[in-house]
Amino acid sequence: MISRLAILAIAALAALGGPVLAQVADLRSHSEFRVCADPAAVPMSAQDGSGFENRLAELFGEKLGLPVTYAWFPQGTGFIRKTLRAGLCDVVIGYAQGDEMVLNTNHYYTSAYGIVTRKDSPLADVDMLEDAALKGQPIGVVAGTPPATNLARAGLAKDMRGWDLFVDRRTENPVGDMLSQVKSGELAAAVLWGPLAGPLVKQDPDLQFTPLVKETTGPKMFYRITMGVRLGEDAWKRELNSLIRRNQDEIDAILRDAGVPILDDYGKALKQ
């Protein structure tokens, strides 16, 4: 007999225009590890397999004994609806904890927004957005993200240079553009999500990334990252939770090798 939870999940899918099937769990493939991913979200996911989320997908596929396949779609409006809910794939490798569009696994890492500067910049020691040294300096930030709010609260609205939040990264590269401008000196700093900026900064000897772990006001700067599955697929979630728990050291090694800043669960310091 179908459970009450499954009935509620199907009803939710129907209300959101998703597929309505007799049993939600039937959508999951048992012959492939099917991943929903953005083809150009470098350094996270990439169609050429170079992203750190691609490496995590390969790790999980290996542990499950399944080949990894992808449903590619630009991450933004319609991503979940046209991939996961359409039944084209079964897991989103990186998804912020608490989003109601998916069923979250346990988190497998915590990271934070941070400030990118040149290593030889007068701002190299800045580790809070309230630092007076930032005043009057051009600062890059993605519009609509938590640090944009904190910068405005710190009286730096006139100093912000904004980039769009949702873009097709096959044709636009806001993070790369900001880092290039920091390197050239056109921007004094950029405030970016760690898993995006960290790996790119690691490749550039002139730049540094400082996690914002000391903020005391405004939106939080750190987030726990999970894997996302379809609503109602509790057994699949539990299986992934078990894989995360048993392979955490290997997961951490992949993230660290990529240059992702990993924090403790409370977002207070780098994970030891």
TrEMBL record:
Domain Solute-binding protein family 3/N-terminal intervals: 32-258
Alphabetical keyword list: Signal
Keyword Signal attached: yes
Segment forming the signal sequence: 1-22
Gene3D superfamilies: Periplasmic binding protein-like II
Name this protein carries in UniProt: Substrate-binding domain-containing protein
Species for this entry: Paracoccus aurantius
